[in-house]
Each structure stands twice: as structure tokens, then as C-alpha cells.
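R.M. (postdoc): so does anyone remember the format we settled on? I'll just put the C-alpha cells first.
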């Protein structure tokens, strides 16, 4: 019988793993920790691996050599993000990489809508006033969504879903991506423009790009300087896409009006953990003090539909490759 090990499994994922295991007559062992050099030995004797984590598997190439020696031929990631993987090392050790690129674009897009509405209706500021027993509304009048320009950086599966939602609600939508979807412009859903035009014109700027070397601090001091002082930023892609120090400066100097972050730099030191006092990340503690900032602990993917798809598709892909087949979700190394 085929045996697969599942790394970093949460309690809510386990029922889907058990269901898939029975339906496919495959043994799946779940462990609660991430895949690293200190835990790779648990994969010995297994035919394949599925995993989900936010920190790099290994800063060297050693873990990939070990997996090759164990006879592992694939790594199936239960997420869209694949920046934790050393693709050169994987390729050199004949290990195929798969991800779940479209577990549920609506899951993330719905979170964007929630964040946008809270920001433009000044919910964080009103919440602070109410907590202080202050019920005065002066100074926090809102503009309706139909008056807003939405700027989407990264118009892939998620970004295009975000575009359709905001277009349906009457907003003007601008988009920027290396690869355009002509049908979005042809149907009037959005207009493709440069990032600079988005920074200059958008009232709500939302990021939906993959993380690679080119996108680290993509939204930085220069980008904030180009934004309108009434603009708000949403980042539900990857934490390092936004320069946190530059964001803090932009917020404090009123270069922008607010931000909503579901991902942050150094989030592996915070999310899925509980603290009695401050977190170990100073910039995160500073963000928490601001009344015009909404923070969530990387929950964009966290819906019933998305979690089930992430688990079952990653297991499907692992089994396909173990049995000598080809998965349509294999991620090809492009030299980046």
C-alpha cells in the first residue's frame, strides 16, 4: 500500500485526510510540525509528502538530498505559495513540486471585500471610539464604494475574482499584471494600467502577487510616496511584498489613510502562536497600536471549501506522481 506523510497538519484538516485516505486506499500519516532538517527523518519509509509551511524547508540543499535518498520523488504543497522551496535543489535531486494554485479564489477575495469595507467605513476608528465610550461620529464620514477606484496588483485567479466583485458593486477597477486577461477589459470589468498609475489614482490598493525575489518590498517607500493620502492598502498575498517599515512611516506621516494586512513580514514568529505580552516582532507590535490598521493572522485561505480542496488536491497530486503520472499542478523551475 502507498504511504504518504502529511507535515504540519491542523486539527481541522484531519477529517479530510482521513476521508481521502479511505477513498483511495492509501495510508496517510499526519504530523503537527513543519518539514525541516530536524524533522525530515519522519519521511523515511514513506512514498510521498504533502506539506504546508511558512518558513523555508532548508537554507542549504541537504534536505533535498536526504529526501532523494529516501526515494521521495515529489513534494506536494497544500497552498498556492511556494516561496519556501529551493527549486534548484529540488530539480537537481529529481523532486517534482506541486502546489494548489486555485484552492478558492473566492475565499481570499471575500476577505479583501471585508477589509475594504471596514477601512472605507472607518470601522477600526469607530471601534476605538466605542471602546472609549465615545459615540460621536464627526470626522469619520464615509464615501460609498461606487465612488472608489480599486487598484489590483497581480490579476491572477484571486486578483481577477477581486476585480469582478468590486466591479459588480459599482467601483472602478484598475489592474496591473505581467500577463493580461483580455476578457476582463473586453467586458468592462477593469482597465490595465501601470503600477505607477494605480499608486496615483487608486483609493483602495490590493496586492495579489506571488513572492519571488522581484516582489520582495514591491510596495515600498517610493510606492507609498506616490499614493493618495486618502488611499488604503490591503495585502493578502505574502508578507515581504510590503516593506513594513515604509508602511509604518507612511501611516504615521499620513501618506496613506489606512491598511489591512492578513500577511506580514516575519509572520512565522507570530501566527498560530499565543503571547501573554507583546509579540517578538517589534514592527507588528507597532502596527497593532494604530487605529487605522486591520490585522488578521493569515486567514485568507481559511474556509471550509478552501481547506478541503487544499488537502485533497495536494494528496491527489502526490499520489499521481508516486504512481508515475503527471500532475497539471507541477510547478516548473524558471530560473528565478
Amino acid at each position: 500500500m502507498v504511504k504518504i506523510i502529511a507535515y504540519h497538519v491542523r486539527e481541522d484538516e484531519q477529517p479530510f485526510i482521513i476521508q481521502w485516505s479511505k477513498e483511495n486506499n492509501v495510508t496517510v500519516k499526519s504530523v503537527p510540525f513543519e518539514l525541516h532538517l530536524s524533522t525530515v527523518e519522519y519521511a523515511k519509509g514513506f512514498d510521498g509528502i504533502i506539506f504546508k509551511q511558512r518558513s523555508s524547508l532548508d537554507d542549504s540543499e541537504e534536505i533535498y538530498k536526504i529526501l532523494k535518498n529516501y526515494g521521495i520523488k515529489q513534494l506536494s504543497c497544500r497552498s498556492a505559495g511556494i516561496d519556501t522551496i529551493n527549486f534548484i535543489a529540488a530539480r537537481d535531486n529529481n523532486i517534482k513540486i506541486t502546489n494548489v494554485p486555485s484552492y478558492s479564489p473566492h475565499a481570499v477575495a471575500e476577505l479583501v471585500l471585508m477589509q475594504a469595507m471596514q477601512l472605507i467605513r472607518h470601522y477600526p476608528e469607530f471601534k476605538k471610539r466605542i471602546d472609549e465610550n465615545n459615540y460621536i461620529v464627526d470626522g469619520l464620514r464615509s464615501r460609498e464604494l461606487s465612488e472608489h477606484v480599486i487598484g489590483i496588483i497581480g490579476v491572477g485567479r484571486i486578483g481577477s475574482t477581486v476585480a469582478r466583485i468590486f466591479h459588480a458593486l459599482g467601483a472602478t477597477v484598475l489592474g496591473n499584471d505581467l500577463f493580461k486577461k483580455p476578457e476582463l477589459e473586453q467586458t468592462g470589468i477593469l482597465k490595465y494600467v501601470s503600477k505607477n498609475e494605480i499608486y496615483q489614482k487608486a483609493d483602495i490598493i490590493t496586492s495579489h502577487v506571488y513572492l519571488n525575489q522581484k516582489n520582495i518590498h514591491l510596495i515600498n517607500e517610493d510606492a507609498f510616496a506616490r499614493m493618495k493620502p486618502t488611499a488604503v492598502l490591503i495585502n493578502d498575498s505574502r508578507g515581504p511584498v510590503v516593506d513594513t517599515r515604509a508602511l509604518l512611516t507612511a501611516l504615521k506621516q499620513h501618506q496613506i489613510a489606512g491598511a489591512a494586512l492578513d500577511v506580514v513580514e516575519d509572520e512565522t514568529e507570530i501566527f498560530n502562536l499565543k503571547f501573554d505580552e507583546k509579540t517578538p516582532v517589534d514592527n507588528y507590535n507597532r502596527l497593532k497600536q494604530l487605529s487605522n490598521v486591520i490585522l488578521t493572522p493569515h486567514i485568507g485561505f481559511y474556509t471550509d471549501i478552501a481547506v478541503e480542496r487544499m488537502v485533497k488536491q495536494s494528496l491527489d497530486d502526490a499520489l499521481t506522481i508516486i504512481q508515475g503520472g503527471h500532475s497539471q499542478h507541477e510547478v516548473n523551475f524558471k530560473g528565478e
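R.M.: ...and that's the designed sequence above, right after the C-alpha cells. Also worth knowing: The chain has two domains: 3-103+304-322, 105-295. The domain at 105-295 is CATH 3.40.50.720 (Rossmann fold).
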